[in-house]
């Protein structure tokens, strides 16, 4: 049966006119409708009709009076599957120690690795399900979740199995991402080659064979992997059909960005220390620049040059980078507020960045991220009368209802 989402004060379509992204100044145009209802058929967007016009075909009406409909939010970069507690590290950060100082003292990623290895799959699953539900309650309909705290053959597979299980228990689209090349595990500190061969010769083929992920990430930094090492991983990943994404230019510029663009990665994420002369590299590139202002806030350092990227025509997306070390932030609305104040992005650019452009970063913008005829009816229905109120109210979750493929999967009760 058809569904009619009726009487919305605004429908923010984020129409990309079939292009599946909003590059540069296109991100300023959201194509908003008022006085219209959204018609959904078989889980997909069928039409937009005048609110008072009759609909003779049998249908069910969902009254969304005085609410704003946006595309379901797409959260394209998270490390939501973690265990343990790194609050002592955060205290050290507040006292002035840097992320790299803490990593050198044996903290950082290594401490989350220990926790993942020591926690059972069923305990990890219940931690993860609660975190997924928090994203769903904010109107998120597509969510990326990375491995990368296992850092051994068994523990990386364990993480990906938990993510797959969680995906089967929830109605949103969960996109697993293999991040074996996040850090060299302590036990192989003196044999990096061995760890790289576990990734390339053992993990990638097994993950592909068991369909545990189709997306491969790495961390290209002095304290993690060099561009030469990332290239080894990416070459094999690409030949097996994985899509690529890279953590890069977070603390230094060692060639990660150039490598990722050369290999047509779907996205390059972080970019806090992007140099002026690297901005032009995005002009003709399909690779999405994913900005993570929660990291700059948490570590209290530079913000990515969002303004210059957008003004020169890049495709810019936003994400939380939710993780226990550098961005213990699961609020997409806080990220939007930081993007407004610290990245100097407009309301329109922020909504484009959290919908169609983050869908492009995940390679799913042909089916979601905007409300265009034939695309999935993935919606966030917000308790506001116009979209400007999102960033005006810092970090407030206005989501009333989350709709995935036309089905209401969350409806706030109070
Ligand atoms: O995206 N940059 C590398 N990885 C994570 C941090 C991981 C951690 O500290 O646990 C990030 O910032
Ligand atoms: Fe990250």
How would you describe this protein?
This protein has helices spanning 87-94, 99-104, 109-118, 121-136, 153-169, 192-209, 227-239, 256-262, 276-279, 293-299, 306-311, 332-341, 347-353, 356-361, 389-392; strands spanning 2-6, 10-12, 32-33, 36-41, 44-50, 59-63, 68-71, 73-75, 140-146, 173-181, 215-220, 243-248, 267-270, 288-291, 316-318, 379-382, 399-404, 407-411. It is α/β, with parallel strands linked by helices and 414 residues long. The protein has 2 domains: 2-71 and 370-411, Urease, subunit C, domain 1; 73-361, Alpha-Beta Barrel (TIM Barrel), CATH 3.20.20. Strands 8-9-10-11-12-13-14-15 form an 8-stranded parallel beta sheet. Strands 3-2-7-16-17-18 form a 6-stranded mixed beta sheet, with no helix packed on it. A 4-stranded mixed beta sheet has the order 5-4-1-6, with no helix packed on it. Helix 4 (121-136) crosses helix 5 (153-169), helix 5 (153-169) runs parallel beside helix 6 (192-209) and helix 6 packs parallel to helix 7. The longest helix has 18 residues, at 192-209. It is globular and about 70 Å long. The two termini are 28 Å apart. The mean pLDDT is 97. Bound molecules: N-(iminomethyl)-L-glutamic acid and fe (iii) ion (FE). Residues 77, 79, 247, 321, 323 line the site of fe (iii) ion.
């Amino acid at each position: 049966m058809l569904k009619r989402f009726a009487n919305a004060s605004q429908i923010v379509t984020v129409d990309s006119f079939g292009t599946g992204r909003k590059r540069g100044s296109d991100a300023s145009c959201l194509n908003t409708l008022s006085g219209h209802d959204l018609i959904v058929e078989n889980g997909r967007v069928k039409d937009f009709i005048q609110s008072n016009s009759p609909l003779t075909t049998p249908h069910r009406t969902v009254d969304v009076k005085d609410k704003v409909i946006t595309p379901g939010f797409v959260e394209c970069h998270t490390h939501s599957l973690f265990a343990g507690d790194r609050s002592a590290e955060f205290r050290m950060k507040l006292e002035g120690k840097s992320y790299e100082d803490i990593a050198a003292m044996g903290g950082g990623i290594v401490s989350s690795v220990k926790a993942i290895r020591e926690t059972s799959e069923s305990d990890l699953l219940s931690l993860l399900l609660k975190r997924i539900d928090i994203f769903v309650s904010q109107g998120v309909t597509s969510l990326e979740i990375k491995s990368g705290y296992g850092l051994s053959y068994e523990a990386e597979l364990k993480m990906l199995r938990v993510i797959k299980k969680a995906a089967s228990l929830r109605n949103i689209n969960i996109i697993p991402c293999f991040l074996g090349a996040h850090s060299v595990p302590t036990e192989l500190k003196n044999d990096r080659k061995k760890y790289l061969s576990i990734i390339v010769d053992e993990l990638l083929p097994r993950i592909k064979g068991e369909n545990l992920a189709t997306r491969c990430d790495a961390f290209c930094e002095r304290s993690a992997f060099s561009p030469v090492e990332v290239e080894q991983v990416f070459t094999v990943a690409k030949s097996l059909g994985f899509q690529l994404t890279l953590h890069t230019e977070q603390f230094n510029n060692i060639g990660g960005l150039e490598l990722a663009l050369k290999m047509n990665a779907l996205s390059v994420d972080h970019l806090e220390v992007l140099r002026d002369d690297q901005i032009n590299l995005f002009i003709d590139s399909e690779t999405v620049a994913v900005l993570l202002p929660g990291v700059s806030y948490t570590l209290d350092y530079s913000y990515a040059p969002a303004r210059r990227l957008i003004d020169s025509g890049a495709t810019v997306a936003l994400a939380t980078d939710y993780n226990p070390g550098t961005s213990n932030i699961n609020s997409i609305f806080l990220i939007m507020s930081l993007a407004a104040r610290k990245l100097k992005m407009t309301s329109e650019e922020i909504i484009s960045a959290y919908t169609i452009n983050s869908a492009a970063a995940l390679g799913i913008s042909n089916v979601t991220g905007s409300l265009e005829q034939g695309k999935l009816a993935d919606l966030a229905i917000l308790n506001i009368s116009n979209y400007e109120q999102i960033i005006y109210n810092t970090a407030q979750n206005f989501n009333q209802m989350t709709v995935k493929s036309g089905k209401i999967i969350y409806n706030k009760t109070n």
